Amino acid sequence: MDWRRSARGDRYYVREREREAAQTAWFWIDSDAGFNWTSNTARPTKLYRARVIALALATLLARGGERIGALGMQPRAGARAVDRLAVDLTTPQGEFEPPNNACIIFISDFYAPIEIWRQRLLASARVGASGALVMIADPAEEDFPFRGRTLFQSPGRGGEVLIGRAENAQAAYVERLAQQRRELRALGAELGFPALLHRTDHSASPALSMLMAFVSERYG
Amino acid sequence: MTLGPILFGAPWALAALLALPALWWIMRATPPPPQRTQFPPTRLLEGVRTEDQSRERAPWWLLLFRALAAALLIIAFARPALAPSASESAQGGRTLIVIDDGWTSAPFWADVRTAGSAAATQAERTGAPVFLLLTAPNQRARDPGEALTAADARAAISRLEPQAWRPDRAQAAERLAQTQGRFDRIVWITDGLNDDGARALAAELQQRGPVTARLPPQTARAIVSGAVTSEGVVADIRRATSGSSIVAIAAETSEGRSLGAAEARFAGDATSATARIDLPPEIAARAARIRIIGEQSAGAVKLLPAGAGRPFVGLVDAGGASQPLLSELFYADRALQPYASLQRGGVRELIDARAQALILPDTSRIAPADLGALERWLQNGGLLVRFAGPRLANDADELLPVRLRPGSRTLGGALAWETPLAIAPFAADSPFAGITPPSDVNVRRQVLAEPASLEEARVWATLSDNSPFVTAQARGRGLIVFFHISATPDWSDVPLSGLFVEMLRRTLAFAARPDGAGEREISGGPFIAQSALDGFGTLSAAPPDAAPIAPDAFALAIASPQTPPGLYERAGVSAAIDAAGADETLNPLALPNGIGREGLTGAIEQPLAGWLFGATAILLAIDLMIALYLFGKLPRFVRTGAAAMLALAVFGGGDAHGQNSDPTQTLRLAYVRTGDARVDRTSAAGLAALSNILTERTSVEPGDPVGIDLARDNLAAYPFLYWPAPSSPQRLSDAALANIDRYLAIGGLLLVDTRDAGAATGRGRPAQTMLTGIDVPPLELVTTEHVLARAFYLMRSFPGRAQSTQLWAEDPNAAQSRDGVASLFIGDGDWAAAWAGEGQTSGRQRELSLRFGVNIVMVALTGNYKADQVHVPALLERMGRE
């Protein structure tokens, strides 16, 4: 009953309210040392590009009134939310407790073994979360432009592989990379996390619009 | 072993070249290290195998490059030498090296040494003994029969210095004749000049073996005579026809400064030339030697002993040297210094030292014993210059041109009619003719001659009333010149004027000049060496064992080991023995047929090992770069280097313009960083507040306050330094103490704040610890009379955090050197805290403390300027009255 309105006249009014539930979009960015890497210092690192994409998407979502947050931190809404997110994203995000019914954007290079990702995504899917996977790749990782006797070292982890003639290893590498991505896409499609690939030597906007499409599709 | 023109000192090392193919094979088998790269998806590569790993090899060009470097290294170890004439002269055997080591070889001594050691090196290959014959005589002559190893011979040659006299080849031939045996090779490194013994030595050498003479391209030249004349410095230069035809000479002072230079040219085949350096006489008189420019030999130096060309003047001074400025001789001394060699002493002493002229002032009495000697000296041509004075006016003696009236005549005195008189223009027949006496030079007092006695004397100058002023009379071959005034300015202005200098110079022209200045005397004591010339013509102190030379030997001495060239002295008179005498003959060396001739500089072995080692090092450096490149490190290495340099430039530059900018650009108040963080914060805040107040209220606009470290920072840029006591004061380091002392001495203002106003006394005063070791001046309590109380604001007290404070300042009497401005203030007000507004200070109290701060900064900047305000009331009152 809308008493205030009803008291002005003889008729009774009933006020009806619609529930406005803001959705929360969570961001998770890989904090692996290999992610903060570029083959050419003139290009941004994968991590940098990941943050750009995350903040751009966050800006769009915040404008739409949604709540945003770094996974594992407090979500916020409003004009200051993006600033807050930018700060939060600078702290490394490790393993996490997936929130219920959330939209989670995973941004990584997804070079970790597929089993790790299966566990992470299953844990999220189990509590009803869905979202998107953004695979960020450096051109060198795509094209494998190495020649000659080369010792490959994994940044931060300490893994080393010595290849006698790198150019001969290219075909095998490309095949393995494609295999990894195929498995990941299949996993993502199964659990409600569509995957998209972005190279750091390309513009971020196509990836961003695709990602926006994924997210808005989820919000309906 | 020789290989064409290349000669190997250690040929066996070449055998290592055989190992090169093995080295090649080893290097081929070793693959280069892999390039390392960071690659995040490395995990994906695990298990990837490429089976062609073993075929990965160093590229062929790198192998070739390394083999080349190895080969060069091996060849370098074989000690190769480029010897164009290696084939014929390499056959060594017993070698005799004859070196002409007189000054005539000094101009090309480096070549002589090189040729000598090259000859020894050639003998070294066969291991044969080397003999050394030096032709210039020496006190300890080397025995030519002594067999040396080549290394010893080289060492001996490298130590060899040319002698300051010419070779005596006849004597050398005699010394050689006393030895036995033939030589397989004789190398005669000669100066290219002939002498009487050259033929004898050549004959002796030819008997003993095959002789090769090494002749210099141009032979030495010599200055055979030199003199200082009225126009400047003149020198005669002689050369052999084989010497260079253009010559430049320079005159030098005894300290070696050049006075001037001139060039001369030997016309055609002429062997002598004359050069004249035009110099004013007073500068020419300072010449101590003449030197051929660019030729370093004893013969190219002509010594001008002190007094050559300068009259030797004695100043008769009866021991009045204790007060040089009051000495009567001061003015004469100063006037004559540029033109004559002066010596002070008694009459006898000076006559014995062969003074050409004596200057006898009034106070010096002539002792009866000296009188005879003086008269004899006058008869022999001495010049006696006398001045009048109170003593002479009353007690004249015989040695005067005129008879004097007793007493002196005072002109312009209180009881005299006359005014001081000027000097009349000089007569045309006077020695002073041509000098214009200045009109402002007056004579106030003089002695007068008996008119009758003027008949016998010559009057050189008169005063404007025709009374004689300078008179002269000949005595035998000598002359007495008498100035009728005193030698000091109390009788006249003359000694103060340029006229005095000119008149004395003209007078000294009459000083007896013996024929040829500096000629050696045959009688008297021995000559003692003062300094000696070496073969290169450098003058240095005489060796302590130099023997004195008897005068009769000295008169005839030519340069030799017994009479080495240099400067000698006897009884205060200098004389010189020159390396090249006036009759020095320089002729080209005449060599008999059968003696081989070679240039001095050509045909010398060039060792190549150094070059090869250098080339190997460069190749290895290039190889390192290549290895880095293959390794993948080079680009990053280069890039890192460039980035580092860029960063250095940017940050270095930024730093220079940033915080460490020139502290003199802006005025900044400074505080001492005590190490107590709270106190330092308070100081900074307090001074910042004070700086703001100063900027607001006064024309002083300080920058941000700066904390300084007493031990390290230069305090000179900060006029005001605030030093609060930390909670636990420490003694200062020595560096800090010295810094503070210097700061106080140059007039900085140091305010020491003990911060204990109102605190209970009894616990150790902090100032005691802080100031230990500082030179604290006497202090006085600052009252309202002090300039600090009126420098900007008028103040009656100086409150800080506490209401009543005590403030002490350096006593003005102690600060005399800084015009009474105190450098050191010591107080207990904790002012920085008050300025910063800390604690329970009321607004009024804070305002007063800030006013105190303004005042003390004003004192630091303006000193006692405002102290003059003390007189303002009096001045205003006086102005009102007028």
Mind sketching the topology for me?
The complex is a heterodimer of chains A (220) and B (882).
Chain A: H1 3-6, E1 24-29, H2 46-63, E2 67-70, H3 81-89, E3 103-108, H4 114-126, E4 130-137, H5 139-143, E5 150-153, E6 160-163, H6 166-191, E7 195-199, H7 204-219
Helix pairs in contact in A: 2-3, 2-7, 4-6
Chain B: E1 2-3, E2 6-8, H1 20-29, E3 35-38, H2 42-45, H3 60-77, E4 80-82, H4 86-89, E5 95-99, H5 109-124, E6 130-134, H6 150-159, H7 169-177, E7 185-189, H8 198-208, E8 211-215, E9 221-228, E10 232-239, E11 246-252, E12 258-265, E13 272-278, H9 281-284, E14 289-292, E15 301-303, E16 312-316, H10 330-336, E17 341-345, H11 347-352, E18 357-360, H12 368-379, E19 383-387, H13 390-394, E20 404-410, E21 421-422, E22 442-443, E23 445-449, E24 458-462, E25 468-475, E26 478-483, H14 498-508, E27 528-533, E28 539-541, H15 551-556, E29 566-570, E30 573-577, E31 596-599, E32 606-607, H16 609-631, H17 634-657, E33 670-672, H18 677-697, E34 706-708, E35 720-724, H19 734-745, E36 749-753, H20 766-770, E37 779-781, E38 807-810, E39 824-827, H21 831-836, H22 843-862, H23 872-881
Parallel strand pairs in B: 5-6, 5-7, 7-8, 8-31, 16-17, 16-18, 18-19, 19-26, 33-34, 33-35, 35-36, 36-39
Antiparallel strand pairs in B: 1-2, 2-4, 4-32, 9-10, 10-13, 11-12, 11-14, 14-15, 20-23, 21-22, 24-25, 25-26, 27-28, 27-29, 29-30, 37-38, 38-39
Helix pairs in contact in B: 1-3, 3-16, 5-6, 7-8
Characterize this entry briefly:
The complex is a heterodimer of chains A (220) and B (882). Chain A is an alpha/beta fold.
